[in-house]
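Why predict the complex rather than its parts? Because the way molecules touch one another can change local conformation, and only a joint prediction can capture that. The input here totals 453 residues.
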Amino acid sequence: MSASSLLAQTNFHTLVTNGPAANRLNLVFLAEGYTSNQFNLFFTHATNTANILLSNSPFAEYRSYFNVFAIAVASAQSGSDRPVDGITRNTYFNSTYGNGVTVREELISIPPNWTNGNYSQGQGKVDNLLQTFMPATDLAIMLVNDLNLGGSDGAGKVAITSIAPNSLSDIPVHESGHVLANLGDEYTTPNPGYPDTEEPNTTRETNRALIKWNAWITPDTPIPTPPTFDYQEVVGLFEGAHYNATGWYRPKLNCRMGSLGVPFCEVCREALVLSFYRNVRLVDSFSPANTNLAISTPDLVQFALTTLQPIGHTLTVQWLTNGIPIATATNTTLTVSPASLNNGVNVVAAQISDPTPFVRTDPQNHLRQTVSWTVNVSLPALELSAPRWLNPNQFAFRISGVAPQGFAIQTSTNLTDWASVATNFLVNGQFDYTNQAGANPSARLFRAVTPPR
Ligand SMILES: [Zn+2]
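Output of the joint prediction:
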């Protein structure tokens, strides 16, 4: 199908915009089993499903990181295939319930699958649509317009859910855990042929020190952890996960990845937050946009960040000059006097981090970002200016420039012998010196001297 004919039959809607697609989690809904006169119904379903998904922790705390879009494509008929009931429907992505082997009628899949191995008749259409309308998609959810419970993680590429109320309240949340964070199922029922690969929330490791979620296990929790009331609220090592009743372990007695209707466990929640930060950075933009600055005047320089804004907590900011934190500089803006820097190369930096308690282990530093500017300062070391009489016996002049170690005012009558009469520091690159009346009765020369660097 050509791009233009695809466009002609496709209705692309923006449902929620929280920022630039380049630095947001872009959630895209796809319509399966909706006829062309059911597009408004699809947009309503998409809006409602986004609201359900984004009200679950940790999506809720990062709801502002998401944009939401909907791509409506028309199917000839409503619904989906249900081979067990002898039902077939002519739909755009050729979805079907079941898996043809065991009694898993709640599984919905698209080609290539057990009924149709042709990628271009299912997943290929998903890939084309996303590439055309939202190449920066982070999470795609296919809404299947069928009232029978069902869904799947679409081979890890697209979360699939039917629009049955019990599906919408749970399946998009669970399947998004698979697609976004590569979480594993914490089910204990057999699933022959399922790959043996461990996920962030499943393991065969029973050595406490080597358990990947050890940071969440307190020393008084036994390993393995008994599946009893006493331990139902703690993270431990509970046997039964990854479609195995024995030999595989999960972090918590109950979790969204094992049971519908319960929250994600701490380990799955951590993996989801890390997955958010694999797709967005903490800083949307900064100024000056040029990170190599050459400065030759003492005018103040403004630095500023635009950061993301999670819900319920704020990101932390710390500014530094030449590697040294500035005590009070913890806002998103910083004003710097070039005279307070060294002549030559300086580094002004902002370290931004997310202090969320949801993440205890972040080896890749996904929750931190540093923005730094190289600031090359070339100011005249010291300059005397604005000489003026205050009264017949007292006069003043201004010292300006760069003197981080302070300066001395010296006087001489012969340009050979110099004596210091005052020492001080520049404030914002300048200082006004007043000569005391009567202190220097005869004509003198004045100079300002900085200590050697
Ligand atoms: Zn979990």
